[in-house]
Write a structure and sequence with these properties.
The protein is an alpha+beta fold and 118 residues long. The chain is built from 3 helices and 6 strands; from the N terminus they run ββββαααββ.
Length: 118
């Protein structure tokens, strides 16, 4: 019996960050290299995809980011994921960044995309 091995190429994803490089937006400080965010003094651990979405939103400084742009930043040239992946990731991010639903950081613009509140 022969053994088969499969090689999975790494996903084509957004920019790579070193630890200590931070992105800031209001009360939010993001360290993409460590996949950590500090929100109003509270440290939040993020998954790789959550971190990439948040970094994309922070880099755009409150401007509209479409679902297609977020999908491209996560998956590059790979076939797109199931249609609700971005919505699920954004919902998880909202719960992590603002568990009390006090003042949500991520605003949905129906049918257009997402942006960070100022």
């Amino acid at each position: 019996m022969t053994q088969r091995s499969t090689f999975m190429a790494p996903r084509a994803t957004g920019p790579r960050y070193r630890r200590g490089v931070t992105l800031r937006h209001g009360d939010l400080v993001l360290d993409p290299g460590a996949q950590l965010a500090v929100v109003r003094g509270r440290c939040v651990e993020l998954t790789r995809f959550e971190c990439q979405i948040l970094a994309c939103l922070v880099r755009r400084r409150g401007s509209l980011v479409t679902k297609g742009e977020l999908t491209s930043s996560l998956y590059g040239l790979e076939p797109p994921p199931p249609s609700n992946v971005i919505e699920v990731l954004v919902a998880r991010l909202r719960r992590k960044l603002d568990p009390d639903d006090e003042r949500p950081f991520i605003q949905t613009l129906r049918g257009r995309g997402y942006r960070l509140r100022g």
